Fold:
Amino acid sequence: MPDHGMERAPGSRAGRPLSSFDIAYEGTPTWDIGRPQGVVARLVASGSVTGAVLDAGCGTGEHALLLAGLGHRVVGVDISPLAVEKARVKAVARGVEVSFVVGDALELEPALAAEAARPFDTALDVGLFHVLQPDDRRRYARSLAAVVRPGGRALVTCWSARNPFGYGPQRITRTMLRRSFVAADGWRMEAIEPEELETRLPVGRVDAWLATIRRR
Structure:
C-alpha cells in the first residue's frame, strides 16, 4: 500500500535503477506493518483461502509466509526486487517453504511460468489493486485470470473511497472494482464488502473494500 504522501528522489542500488517501491523498502513503508493484516486472518478463518495461493504484490512476504505455514503451496510475486529479497530472508529465517518471484502483476503468466503451483486456486491481493493506474486495472484482471484456475477466486483488498484523507493511494469505489473484473475477462464478482487495512500512518487503520471474485 504505497505511501503517496511522500515523494522520493530516484536512486540506484547494486548498479540498477531503484523503483519508487524499492526506495520505500529501503526503510519501512507505511503499509508494511511487520505482521499479516487482520483481513487475511479473517479470510483464513472463514475458509476463503483454499489450495495453491498466489500472493500478488507480496511485499516482504508476511501473508505468503502465514499461508505457507498453514500448509498452502504459496508463490509471492512483487515488482520490487528489494521487497522480494527481504521476503526470501524471512522465509529462510522462519524455516518456511515459499517461492518468491520478482515480476510484474500485469504480466503474471510469463513471470510465473516456472512455478509448479500454477494454476492457482486463490489469488490474494492486499494493497496492490489501488496502486494501479485506471488503464491498467482490466489488464491486471486479465493477468490474474491467466494464472487462476476456473472456479478459483481472487480476494482483493484495497483502499476505499470512504477514506477522507488528503494522502495515501487512489480511492477505489465499488464501481471501479466491478468495471475492472468483468465477465469478458473471465471473472464474476461475488461480493464487495467493507473492510479495513492496518497501516503505520498516524490514523492507524483505514477503510477498505474486500472484493471476492470468482474465476469463470
User: Anything to note?
Assistant: The domain at 36-215 is CATH 3.40.50.150 (Rossmann fold). The chain has seven helices and nine strands.
